[in-house]
Design a protein that fits this description.
This protein is α+β, with helices and mostly antiparallel strands. Helices cover 47% and strands 12% of the residues.
Length: 153
């Protein structure tokens, strides 16, 4: 059984391929920012934890602005995802500044309370302690860690 690394890589870029095929436009990813949704990225908090925030609708964005980040003026300034994407550099810079003012638990609690997709981004050491991480690694006969092409989940 073989797996093509090129095919796996292509699957991770499916949105970019579909966008090109439907519009003819090349989209290049900028860091961790999503190509099709804004805000949808990673933000560092006051306690140096990275949070992943994902806003997938205009209604969620309005809730996020009003109840979580205290920027109700953004609802009218950036009412649609396409407008947010066109201003993503400005939005993400401002969000980085905002998220740096509170600890991760405060942001996580607020996002949970108002149903905004948000999670802590684990460090590698933390990810390996999670059930999926523990099942990801196998050891050779000489106790060398490996990650098989098809991990056990």
């Amino acid at each position: 059984f073989e797996i093509s690394m090129a095919k796996i890589s292509a699957m991770f870029q499916m949105g970019q391929y579909l966008h090109y095929l439907t519009t003819g436009e090349e989209k290049i990813r900028n860091g961790n920012d999503d190509l099709f949704l804004c805000p949808f990225s990673f933000y560092k908090t006051k306690d140096s934890v990275r949070l992943s925030i994902g806003i997938v609708s205009d209604e969620q964005f309005a809730r996020f602005c009003q109840l979580i980040i205290g920027k109700p003026e953004w609802i009218k300034q950036f009412p649609t995802n396409i407008i947010r994407l066109n201003n993503s550099k400005e939005i993400n810079a401002e969000l980085s500044a905002i998220f740096s003012k509170k600890n991760s638990t405060e942001w996580l609690d607020l996002c949970k309370k108002y149903q905004i997709a948000c999670t802590k981004v684990n460090k590698v050491s933390e990810a390996l302690e999670q059930p999926f991480g523990k099942n990801l690694v196998e050891y050779t006969k000489c106790n060398f860690p490996i990650i098989p092409v098809i991990p056990r989940y």
